[in-house]
Design a protein that fits this description.
By secondary structure, this protein is an alpha/beta fold. The protein has one domain (14-136): YqgF/RNase H-like domain (Nucleotidyltransferase, domain 5, 2-Layer Sandwich), CATH 3.30.420. Helices cover 43% and strands 23% of the residues. The protein is built from four helices and five strands. It has a five-stranded mixed beta sheet with strand order 3-2-1-4-5, sandwiched between helices. The longest helix has 22 residues, at 115-136. It is globular and about 35 Å long. Could be a nuclease involved in processing of the 5'-end of pre-16S rRNA. Keywords: Cytoplasm, Hydrolase, Nuclease, Ribosome biogenesis. Its EC number is 3.1.-.-. It comes from Candidatus Lloydbacteria bacterium CG22_combo_CG10-13_8_21_14_all_47_15. This is Putative pre-16S rRNA nuclease.
């Protein structure tokens, strides 16, 4: 007798954020929460409203933010802005996750040299790292 076990994947879409003091990169996952794709780059001033609008448009409740630290592990100066951004998202009812982002922008620069999309690529790298960990533990 052969038994077949079907694993039903829960549909879960995520938004990834590469937060910067001037520009913020945004990425989206596919419906299954398996793959991350660069979406857009917005000014820091527009980031919160854009992320919230995308979350509403795509039915996203989980947002992954790059956790910016020095190589020593200490939070770098950008981390204060990330923490404030995360706190505001949480107050708005979103579930947030921090994902280490060492060199994500540099890595994005190696894959796409167009500066205007580099931050969105970095957001996709951050989100993909988070998704890979989630899917490996499932």
């Amino acid at each position: 007798m052969i038994s077949i076990i079907w694993r039903t994947a829960t549909s879960m879409k995520y938004i990834g954020v590469d937060y910067g003091t001037k520009k913020v990169g945004i990425a989206l996952s596919d419906e299954s929460g398996t793959f991350a794709f660069p979406h857009s780059v917005v000014s820091n001033e527009r980031a919160l409203s854009r992320v919230a609008a995308l979350a509403e448009e795509y039915g996203v409740s989980h947002i992954v933010l790059g956790e910016s630290r020095e190589l020593s592990g200490k939070p770098n100066p950008v981390m204060a802005g990330i923490a404030a951004f995360e706190a505001t998202l949480r107050k708005r009812g979103f579930m947030t996750h921090l994902e280490p982002e060492y060199f994500s922008t540099a890595e994005a620069g190696r894959t796409d040299e167009r500066e205007k999309v580099r931050d969105a690529q970095a957001a996709a790298i951050i989100l993909q790292s988070f998704l890979d960990k989630q899917n490996a533990s499932a």
